[in-house]
Amino acid sequence: MEEFMTAGLRYFLPAVLGREQVGHPTAADAPPLNAKLVSSPLHYVWPSSSGTMRGISLAPIWPSAPTAALQDLELYAWLALADAIRLGEPRMSALAKSEIGNRFRALRHEDHGLLAR
User: Fold this and answer.
1) N or C, fewer C-beta in 10 Å, the chain?
2) Quick one: which of 58, 52, 60 has its CA closest to 76?
């Protein structure tokens, strides 16, 4: 799963960008990357009239993903990391890949039976 997310996701589910509009922050504008990158004048959002940020709209990987993410902060973080990779911007993508690696290592270390060794 880690390899798919870091190496294949961008090709399997490429980023589809739209016009500038209001939405919920994603990629580098959402946790956990927003604490690691200096804010850019270019923001990415999942389009939503109840959003908190104006930016370039990024189609989510699934239509209901933003709704689910807003109810589960851990899911939100994973989806934002996936979007950072899908966008393919080198610095953002490298940080997302590093964070994903850290999260998978933590899952393996916790040994919740979620991942085979």
Assistant:
1) C
2) 60
The gap from C-alpha 81 to its chain's centroid, in whole angstroms, comes to: 3
Distance CA 47, CA 66 (A): 9
pLDDT digits (tens, 9 = 90+) for 33-54: 998 887 678 899 999 999 999 9
Enter the tokens of residue 100: 């994903």
In this predicted model, what pLDDT tens digit does every residue of 51-70 receive, in sequence order?
Answer: 999 999 999 999 999 999 99
14 Cβ contact partners less than 8 Å away, ≥ 6 residues apart: 86
d(CA 19, CA 117): 43
pTM over 0.85, yes/no: yes
